[in-house]
Protein 1
Amino acid sequence: MLRMASSFPEEVLEHVFSFIYDDKDRNAISMVCKSWYEIERWCRRRIFVGNCYAVSPPMVIRRFPEVRSVELKGKPHFADFNLVPEGWGGYVYPWIAAMATAYPWLEEIRLKRMVVTDEALELIAKSFKNFKVLVLSSCEGFSTDGLAAIAANCRNLKELDLRESEVDDLSGHWLSHFPDSYTSLVSLNISCLGSEVSFSALERLVGRCPNLRTLRLNRAVPLDRLANILCRAPQLVELGTGTYSAELQPDVFSSLAGAFSGCKELRSLSGFWDAVPGYLPAIYPICPSLTSLNLSYATIQSTDLTKLVSQCQSLQRLWVLDYIEDIGLEALAAFCKDLRELRVFPSEPFAQEPNVSLTEQGLVSVSEGCPKLHSVLYFCRQMTNDALATIARNRPNMTRFRLCIIEPRAPDYITLQPLDDGFGAIVEHCKDLQRLSMAGLLTDRVFEHIGNHAKKLEMLSVAFAGDSDLGLHHVLSGCENLRKLEIRDCPFGDKALLVNAAKLETMRSLWMSSCSVSFGACKLLGQKIPRLNVEVMDERGPPGSRPESCPVEKLYIYRTVAGPRFDMPGFVWTMDEDSALRLS
Amino acid sequence: MEGGLGLLGVSGGGCSGASTNESTVSKVEVVVDAEASSYPIEAELELGLGLSIGGGSVGKGKSSVWGECGRILTAKDFPSLVSQPHRGHNNNNNNNNNSNATASACVAVSGTKRAAEPVSHEGESPTSISKLLCGSSQVVGWPPIRAYRINSLVNQAKASRSEEDKSFGEKDKSNDASKKICNGNKTNATGNEKGHLGFVKVNMDGVPIGRKVDLNAHTSYETLAQTLEEMFFRSTPPVSSMGGEKQQSANLSNLLDGLSEFVLTYEDKEGDWMLVGDVPWGMFLSSVKRLRIMRTSEANGLGPRFQDRNGIQISKPV
């Protein structure tokens, strides 16, 4: 065996490995034998850390000394919905500081749900001479000053994408820090910023960057400036407009329509804040070639929406508000046969009564008419088991299915039964289902279905569901590929967790909030399984000040080789061997 | 096995107290073995193996626990959230308030809580904004929509509310309408420098952990102050009953009347710190960047003290 492994010179193996990009494949290669492990680690250029606390920067650097691209994720997904208090963690600075010395040739940093400070951005700007890509997805903690540092210093920057981050928006002046000599911009996404950037600086920037293909503007860019920007970048492939609203004026309209027509490569549109129907026809000429359309900020009604989508025969992805209604979704099903992904967001998420005629029928129509549909996020107010079963039978190729019924615990509105069988049909028919979020009235039975059938399921989100620990046990014992499980407001307690404790080490993370897991069980888990961090979040004070049987507010368990973290705020405690000593 | 609600709120016998260390350890070891073998799942939950961490037994659930550590009500306590008037409430009630609490406060344990149900306050039109913001579910993080989406919708609602005879979502949009919307949103776009007016940070002197509060969930200073009081002064839980008038115990500070140890202040667009309550609510909303609960002793020089006005009372909306 040793002979065979060393029969190829290192350089040859390294060359072969350079064609392998996927992390899983790379990991597999590294486990073949020691020499392959060594060769592979020296030539791995890209690393992905799905939980920044699963490993420490020195560990990563020690193993992979020549990395060019890093992707890190921080807070748990439920942080998106305000369930993770401020100060929880996810700080990127320690990573940047370590990489500044170890990876001087780092080119790409992609972060999700992490706390990024201006100091971190300044350090990035100073440390990496060939820095090219910065993607900050749902991050926070930095201001436009940090962006100014990036703009001013990163000569080779190609991509700056701030999607959905929370930026302390001091002014729009940062954009002017791109020097006049800077021309390498390929992708810019500032849609989350509130303040105005200088329009002339923006136009000049766009005009001097010939490779610009993605431009997502923010709401503060008015409609009458859009034509000028487009004319300077006819090669654009992806555009996010600013406010899509203005007084209807023929000259504004015609220059806008002309500008859009000039963008022959345009395939993706977004933005459309406050969209006014009168200006929609300006994009009709490019609709037939659009593959992606995000209208989820556009408060246009179903008639106009229907007219619009009916012209988008190449559409693969549609994000839209529920103003589209069932009737618009029927049109979608009829005209957009290449549709792969649909997201329907609620226009009035907190209203008691429905404000639009969007029901389960809309989703059924799309599932019938669009054979390639595999990714769905759908907010609605009513659902039936029959509809879910129909969708499941229509679309066995479904891979991501997220349903949210506005009212928690809503039953099948016709039979008044739980929706167990409907979701059961989904997991039974859709054998490649990777991600599932459930809604409505659900008993332990749905979890039994999931445990029995959802063998490829990797991520499951559960809220206000189940009757007992049996539900959780079904999932933990049955779903072989489960990586992320997030649960809120379910009557799950200690038993299922403790019985399936070993399973937790095979997953990235488990979140449970407003459930019935006791402090004692958390301690037990933390003590018995050293490679899990069992973190208890409780804003009532130290869990040790209450009886062991008392349930914790929130629980976040994740596997790690880095041991407990030390950057926790006062309301987070790690349960480990020492916790018995540290917690009074 | 009893259903979910059966696990809660049943006043049970005394907690058996922590089991001894040895027995706990041995139970775990048994568990690990069982987990390795194929485990038969029966209709009745047999997972128990007597795993009782600190008391309670299979089937009875944690009922006995509640009395000891205080009862934290969550949305699961309430069979239906539909059309239950919100009587915004407090956690840490003891198990007197168990499942008969059909008066709903859906207080999620994390602490950030929405305000009371919509009532027309101080000239704010109840139609669009309250319809948009307030509904049956007062649970944190539900429905699961990102804050920037919610804020974006609300900003659009604010714009259209200026049209008296057009309700939000109306299909007919004339030139006038689009003009109004455009103007309304220009204000919002520039007045809203963070791009998400709704959630603003709140810090309190002496408390290291900042919070965030959704300003769009409130239509008046009173509800905002109530929410903040509950967020930050929970360490002295009042003995309040569910529903009815919200009691303000002597321990709770009243942030608006200028009589307590703390005052509520905000930083406006220009970076100045102002006392909350001086300007009309709408004007406040368009200029506030963040909030701070400041010690009264440090609040001198912030501007005229907030005068007690009629109609500013901490009372429950009808």
Note: The first helix of chain A runs from residue 2 to 5.
Protein 2
Amino acid sequence: LLAAYVGYVGLGAAVLQALERPAEVQAAQHLLQEHWELLANHTCLQGPALQRLIEGIIQAYKSGITLQGNTTSLGRWDYSGSFFFSISAITTIGYGNLSPSTAAGRIFCIVFGLFGIPLNLILLNEIGQLMLLGVQRCACRLEEVFHWQNKASFLMKTCALVTGLLLFLLLPPLLFSEKEGWSYEEGFYYSFITLSTIGFGDYVIGMNADRTYPSWYKNVISLWILFGMAWLALVIKFCINLLE
Amino acid sequence: QVLMEAWEKGVNPEGNSTNPTNWDFSNSFFFAGTVVTTIGYGNLSPSTVAGQIFCVFYALFGVPLNLAFLNQLGKGLNAHLLTLERWVQKPGRAQVQLAIFLTTGTLLFLVFPPLVFSYVEGWSYGEGFYFTFITLSTIGFGDYVVGTNPNKHYIPVYRSLTAIWIVFGLAWLALVFNVGADLMERYLQLKWHKSDLSLAEGATTKLEDEPEQPRIHIPS
């Protein structure tokens, strides 16, 4: 098993390297070009000053402030943003676009996670069991009505799988592309990365300062995350059972 | 604008020339590891469409593989504990076993590594501890990541050692969380007096259904 594990990670590394390296080189060259052009065109601008500005921008970006347009986008730690952050912490998604920078905030985050993560596991377990119960009840009813035997259970399971797939992975990206302006593929990527709790944070909903979101948006997304995670956990469990 | 695009692709704009790439094999290996363990720092993430699609399917098979692997590891750790206890020759009490397990694990995975990190990375102990916890719980914010400071020189095995530590620490912390969730569940059930009917129903569904992460029960 260890060999398979290490081999699998190595395989992924090789493929990703091959896929991502060219784009990165291109971006770096583009950046350098812009840098030199800027310095060349505006001779009043000094090299070190520009360097300092760049470093300042990076620091600010790391702590969550973006510098688009004429103002800075603040207000990320308002209640709604903090609520979303708490969810991302206890579900272990952990986007990271927003993370505590004060020592007190970090200590609180650790303690919060220590109790929040088991709580989250319990909740997901409950939701998963409810879902499974529902599926089995439907299967029983199908058996009564159509007098199939074992096939009903299998049919119900595939049906549940397909509905879950539609509801949690295939339809939400449509919503995201409409609200966030992402492509469908980016929305799908975001959905999967979120529901599997990997949560890179390169795409996060509701972070674009130029767009207005309806008030129900974040709450609906939170519900979707919860149920989607429970469903995906069930699917992964079945996969593990198959693996073993 | 260009700065942010470059940053998102993982290029560090602070240098004067194109820095050593972020997607060499060692870094990609580390990245693949963060995907499979669902830590997902995000300081590095695929920006090409092909990379993103590959990432999705890669995780689809990698995450169960990782869980199965951690499960095996957890069982192995558990077995180790049992042999250790027999060695001490105390009549097996679950509490004592649990206490030993918790303290050794805490020392080995939570207290000691931050010292190493603060020395190598130049973080304070508090920052090292914060990074340790956020990583082992797989939250993985990505505000702190080992081995990413371009100004520092790391010994080649540093990343591999960190990876090994992460894997074992994950197995241990997963055990801790499962035990914690178990205790919380029992506590909540006592409080809410679940009826016998739902318990019976739960018993029949438990054959097919297991908790989200494989639960490894410490035998009492």
Note: Chain B touches chain A through 90 residues (CB under 8 Å).
